[in-house]
Design goal:
- The protein has 203 residues and is of the alpha+beta class.
- 22% of the residues lie in helices and 42% in strands.
- It contains four helices and 13 strands.
- The protein has a six-stranded mixed barrel with strand order 1-3-2-6-5-4. It has a four-stranded mixed β-sheet with strand order 10-7-9-12, with no helix packed on it.
- Strand 2 and strand 3 form a beta hairpin.
- It is elongated, with a radius of gyration of 23 Å.
């Protein structure tokens, strides 16, 4: 895991100053925790976006020789999807925290449902887990090779890596992965169901 390079910034920058820095690829950020005063930072936009995409929201930050483990708590975007500001929460090495981790589907091409024309999709691209920084995976794999048409997988059916737990507000019975029927098949099923209901009503 590499370090996200950051530099301190003063608190006297105007909005015009910050916008000029954004155009140069430096994004305003802040890092805070219960055992330190918050620090205003500048981070490199391209490096942050690359590391966030590859590693999720748990990053190691280097600020003028100091190295901190941090959880990305908030990312602010403009209406045009430009990166505006990032907030980090500094973590202790052995401290558990809620982190957001991306999901990866494994073996979707081997799924009987997918081979029959179905579409396997996630209800969420990322999930929240409770873990120490050292135990947080870069992603969570979900093997869908067994999924038939119409099948669903719930949170409780997904095996988390050692040291990780679902965040407390996750409902284990909620659907996380679904193998849906092709759109045409769904339409035909709906028509058949409607015809059956009409026939029963007429009877």
């Amino acid at each position: 895991m590499g370090f996200l390079k950051a530099e301190t910034r003063g608190s006297n920058h105007t909005s015009g100053d910050l916008n000029r820095m954004r155009k140069q690829g430096k994004i305003p950020a802040v890092i805070y925790s219960g055992d330190m005063e918050s620090q205003n930072l500048f981070i490199d936009k391209l490096q942050f976006k690359k590391m966030y995409h590859e590693q999720g929201n748990l990053l190691e930050i280097e600020v003028e020789g100091q190295k901190w483990m941090a959880n990305t708590k908030e990312i602010q975007w403009s209406p045009l999807s430009d990166l505006l500001h990032v907030s980090f929460h500094k973590l202790k090495r052995g401290q558990k925290a809620i982190v957001e981790v991306p999901l990866h589907l494994v073996n979707p091409g081997k799924s009987p449902g997918a081979r029959a024309g179905g579409a396997i999709s996630l209800s969420h691209e990322t999930v929240k887990i409770w873990a120490k920084p050292a135990d947080v995976p870069s992603h969570i794999d979900i093997d869908v090779a067994h999924m038939e048409m119409g099948d669903s997988m719930h949170y409780g059916q997904v095996t988390l890596p050692p040291g990780c737990e679902w965040e407390q507000h996750v409902h284990l019975e909620d659907s996380l992965v679904h193998c849906s029927f092709p759109q045409k098949a769904e339409e035909e099923t709906t028509v058949e169901a409607t015809e059956e209901t009409t026939a029963e009503t007429a009877t």
